[in-house]
Structure formats: structure tokens, C-alpha cells
């Protein structure tokens, strides 16, 4: 049985608002973030889900509970937290200014000063961008392509095991992680260049097939548009 997966990006957080790098570090949802999520939750309120899951970071957990509380056609028990769906890890850059971080990564990649992350990725490719991130990190803790790719594969494999008897599920995850999944599993991506970053509270819809194969069919949509 194939499983329809609704990937929801968490709501806006304080670090989003302050333009800070936010991977495995956490910050609370803002008032705007909660209001935006309520619109997503209301739009999905009459979509039946067999289960709901979440990254184990608090901003995602708070988001999934908003989805759960607003849904009037699903009976969801305790939310299972899936660490594999955490945001991309940025190592020593966690909590730093985003523009300064991108500039350091661009220099590590050998392309000089650049703060537009989309320009950086499109010039060197997503694979080299991940390698440059680890290289620029003073402690070299940031996830590179191989580490992140292994985690994505593990995330899909674990979700497949959990949802074998479930027709439709909702999973709350994070912007860069969802985007990287889409670069890998969406037919509209070439697997190398950047794509639009998903909005807070947006929905990306995927199909998890019986054989474990995953494909993304809708990316970065307002819930009302699905």
C-alpha cells in the first residue's frame, strides 16, 4: 500500500526572524509563525490522516500539535518523534548570522564573497555546497553531502517501516531538509541546482511506494492549493 506523505515546514521562529542559522539548535515559534500555522492547520482540518509524525526539535513538535489539535476528522494518538527528519546540521555556524555564514562558505568554495545562497549553490552545485559548509566550519562538524544523504535515506526507510499500514500521514520537518529531499526526489529538480526554499507552514506532498521508493509530487504549496 502506497502512503501519501504531507511534509509540513514548521512555523516562523525567532531565529528565522533574526536571520540566524538554525539547524539542530532551536528557538521558539513567533506570533506570526503560530498565526501562519493556524491557517495551514485549518486548511488541513478536514483531511484525514492515519498518523502524524514530527522531527524531534521543539519548533517542529509545537507545529505538529497545532496540526493535530485543529484536525477534526483524524484520531491521532501520541506523536512519534523522528530525529532523522531534523533540520540540516550546520555545526559551528549554528546561531550565527546567515549572511556572514554564506559568505564564509562561498570563500571556502573558492568563489569569493557572496551572501546569496541560491547563487552559491547554482554556481558550485548542492554537493559542493555541503562540502564547502563542512570545510568552512572551524570544527568541521557541519553535515556534508554524504552524511546528509545517508540521513535522508534512513529517514525515508524508517518512515516506510512505520507507515506500511497507513494511507496518509503528516510529517513536520524543516526548510533546508525538505528542500534537500526535493532536490533528490522531485522530478522538477535536476538534483544539482537550487530550488525555491519552502515557506514556513508550507506543504510538500510525497508518495512513499510499497517498495520503499519515495517521490515528491507537490512542493512548497499553501495547504489551500492542494
Q: Briefly, what is this?
A:
The chain has 226 residues and is an alpha/beta fold.
Major sheet characteristics: 6 strands, mixed
Question: What would the average pLDDT be, to the nearest integer?
Answer: 97
Q: What spatial order of strands do you see in the largest sheet?
A: 3-2-4-1-5-6
* Assembly state of the chains shown: single chain
**Count of DSSP strands:** 6
In angstroms, what is the radius of gyration?
A: 17 Å
Distance between the termini: 22 Å
| Residue windows where pLDDT falls under 50 for at least 5 positions | none
Q: Helix/strand/pairing class, anyone?
A: alpha/beta
Task: Summarize the helix and strand pattern as letters.
Answer: EHHEHEHHHHEHEE
- Our count of helices gives 8
Strand content: 5-15%
Bin the helical content. 25-40%
Shape: globular
Overview of the structural elements:
This protein has helices at residues 14-17, 31-43, 58-70, 98-108, 117-124, 126-136, 145-162, 175-185, and strands spanning 3-9, 51-54, 80-81, 168-173, 203-208, 214-221. Helix 4 crosses helix 6 and helix 5 crosses helix 6 (126-136). The two termini are 22 Å apart. The protein has 226 residues and is an alpha/beta fold. Strands 3-2-4-1-5-6 form a six-stranded mixed β-sheet. The radius of gyration is 17 Å and the shape is globular.
